[in-house]
Design goal:
The complex is a heterodimer of chains A (506) and B (99).
Chain A lengths: L2 H8 L2 H9 L5 H19 L2 E4 L1 H16 L11 E5 L26 H8 L3 E6 L33 H8 L5 E6 L5 H7 L2 E4 L19 E6 L2 H11 L17 H9 L7 E5 L13 H16 L3 E5 L7 H16 L20 H12 L2 H14 L5 H24 L2 E5 L15 H5 L6 H6 L3 E9 L2 E8 L5 H19 L11
Parallel strand pairs in A: 2-3, 2-4, 7-8, 7-9
Antiparallel strand pairs in A: 1-3, 4-6, 5-6, 5-10, 9-11, 10-11
Helix pairs in contact in A: 1-3, 3-4, 8-9, 9-17, 11-13, 11-14
Chain B lengths: L5 H10 L6 H18 L34 H5 L5 E2 L2 E2 L10
Antiparallel strand pairs in B: 1-2
The chains are: A alpha/beta (506), B mainly alpha (99).
Chain lengths: 506, 99
């Protein structure tokens, strides 16, 4: 690999866009450099399920043509992107990590796909994920796990682990993830990236394969806070095709990322959530994670922020509420995989009836975790149990939202670890569903309340990345970016380089 | 509160249109029992007077103008079907009589 293509694959999206805009490199060269890197590295990382070589080069060529014609380019024009396979792409196989959809070619684009293309961003391909986004490690993918570039024997997080490993491994500078219980923030945390879960309804879900409709939210992953904000701006905003999309102007996330990098946080009140790894609530948290996050909070104090402790007593019920709500909604959403209109069909021998073909297809096409969640959801929604389980869990959400509202009386943002541990070894939790679920402990409250939250690297513990989570009130996504940019800028200058330069596999 | 038997798993799997093997009945019975026992404590929070939450920014009665727009071409949709015939989805028999 030549020096210039190595530097273009480790450059930030902002740097790449500037190189293309000034004509120092072509968008085609940038895309080719990333395709080459996928070729050489993805055998080990297994981040892409589909690489769209022709489509990517054509999209890059279109950017070069627009520039040659003297047209103004957008801020991310020509920058390559890794798109999570839960997002439908017209003409490009989309599986959501499930065997039941293997070979499915969607007849339409998701709104975020359309927006990515309109911004001149180049889709390199579709990334691996836990099946239907159910998992925290990519080990529930129907197509084998992805690997963490920091240590190939460890998980890259999940469910957006293909995107996180691709961006951390420099196969793409930008990634799209979706977050239902933490599936953007946790993979970002364990691979040393920035990942933001927007306010529920802040980014269109039209064309996302639904898992849990009251929780699912798409969002950006990047190697810097500013890159992540720019991608958020490209995909966000109201979409009439999604009835849950919020019809208000998007928060000023890019301006906030730029302002935050200036480093002055005086007047800002930062609440440390006691129940998420704070005083007396350290059970299940690795000491190295807690000390890294504490150091980052000290850095924020050094930038002028006022640090206060807040208590959110109902956060302790988040895991239980989530693992009732998400499976309940999944059991309903996944009923669409009926072997009739798209996807796999098994056992259609002319003798068997529709119900039997459906059941055999779902047995063959779904993995074990998906089956578990469908059955948990079916149980929780069945008559006699509905009130005690799903109904009660929806009320717990209200109590969690009220905890947030009370905490935001005394703090402008809340902070915690993004996940209780660093990346765990592949295979370590596959036989214990409850241990796997614990990876989402810190991210679930913001998912249930629908509030925005970002994960930004706070440092390393035993050579593996740790994430600081910053949570804000609904529609105040800009606060997440402002604080994240401040901590990123301060830690980078203290360290002398971005954390990701320490990835051993390059 | 919970004790999920093999019969319960078989019933749930039937409701969810999911064929299961004998081994899966045992595996899932144990796992579902553990998971349900661990989430049952949502009931410990007194919440009789608490309304449920679904959206961070409450939205009601979302409509769009009743105007014609583009839709998918039937050929594009049927191209992804497991089986199609005569411009329609071909499905297995839906009544009980043998074919």
């Amino acid at each position: 690999m030549t020096g210039s293509s190595a530097s273009v694959t480790s450059a930030s999206a902002v740097e790449i866009a500037a190189l293309i805009d000034t004509g120092e490199v072509s968008a085609v060269d940038v895309t080719q450099a990333h395709l080459d890197r996928i070729d050489s590295e993805d055998g080990a990382l297994h981040t892409f399920l589909q690489v769209d070589t022709d489509g990517a080069l054509a999209a890059a060529q279109a950017v070069d043509d627009r520039r040659a014609a003297g047209k103004k380019l957008g801020p991310l024009a020509g920058v390559p992107l890794a798109l999570k396979d839960v997002v439908v792409t017209k003409g490009l196989e989309t599986t959501s990590g499930s065997r039941i959809l293997a070979g499915w070619i969607p007849p339409y684009d998701a709104t975020i796909t359309t927006r990515i293309k309109a911004a001149g961003i180049v889709i390199l391909g579709k990334t691996n994920m836990d099946e239907f986004a159910m998992g925290s490690s990519t080990e529930n993918s129907g197509f084998g796990p992805s690997h963490n570039p920091w240590d190939l024997d460890r998980i890259p997080g999940g469910s957006s682990g293909g995107s996180s490993a691709a961006v951390a491994g420099c196969l793409a500078p930008l990634g799209i993830g979706t977050d239902t219980g933490g599936s953007i923030r946790q993979p970002a945390a364990v691979t040393g990236l920035v990942g933001h879960k927007p306010t529920y309804g802040g980014v269109s879900r039209y064309g996302l394969i639904a898992f849990s409709s009251s929780l699912d939210q798409a969002g950006p992953l990047g190697r810097t806070v500013l890159d992540t904000a720019l991608l958020h701006e490209a995909i966000g905003g109201h979409d009439p095709a999604d009835s849950t999309s919020i019809p208000v102007p998007m928060p000023p996330v890019v301006a906030a990322a730029r302002a935050g990098a200036g480093g002055d946080l005086s007047g800002l009140r930062i609440g440390v959530v006691r129940e998420l790894g704070g005083q007396g609530f350290t059970d299940g948290y690795e000491p190295g994670v807690l000390s890294s996050v504490t150091e980052a909070i000290d850095v924020l104090a050094g930038l002028g922020a006022e640090i206060v402790e807040v208590s959110c007593p109902h956060f302790g019920y988040a895991l239980a509420a989530y693992y009732l709500i998400a499976p309940s909604e999944a059991s309903s959403n996944l009923a669409r995989f009926d072997a009739m209109r798209y996807g796999l069909r098994v056992g259609d021998d002319g003798v068997r009836g529709l119900d039997e073909v459906m059941a055999l297809t779902r047995q063959a096409g779904f993995g074990a975790e998906v089956k578990r969640r469908i059955m948990i959801g079916t149980y929780a929604l069945s008559s006699g149990y509905y009130e005690a389980y799903y109904g009660q869990a929806q009320k717990v959400r209200t109590l969690i939202s009220r905890d947030f509202a009370a905490a935001f009386q005394s703090a402008d943002v809340l902070v915690s670890p993004s996940t209780p541990t660093v990346a765990f070894p592949l295979g370590a939790r596959t036989d214990d569903p409850l241990a796997m679920y614990a990876a989402d402990l810190c991210t679930l409250p913001a998912s249930l309340a629908g509030t925005p939250a970002i994960s930004v690297p706070s440092g390393l513990s035993d050579g593996l990345p740790v994430g600081l989570q910053i949570m804000a009130p609904a529609l105040a996504d800009d606060r997440c970016y402002r604080v994240a940019a401040a901590v990123e800028s301060a830690l980078d200058s203290r360290r002398g380089h971005p954390l990701l330069q320490e990835v051993p596999v390059r | 509160m919970t004790a999920i038997s093999r019969d319960d798993v078989a019933h749930l799997a039937h409701l969810a249109r999911l064929a299961v093997t004998e081994q899966e009945l045992d595996l899932f019975a144990g796992q579902l029992d553990v998971i349900l026992a661990s989430v049952a404590h949502v009931a410990d929070v007194a919440a009789d007077d608490i309304p449920p939450t679904t959206h961070a920014v409450p939205l009601t009665n979302i409509t769009r103008p009743d105007e014609l727009g583009p839709s998918l071409h039937p050929d594009d949709v049927l191209a992804a079907a497991p089986a199609a015939e005569g411009g329609r989805f071909r499905v297995p028999r839906i009544l009980d009589e043998p074919a």
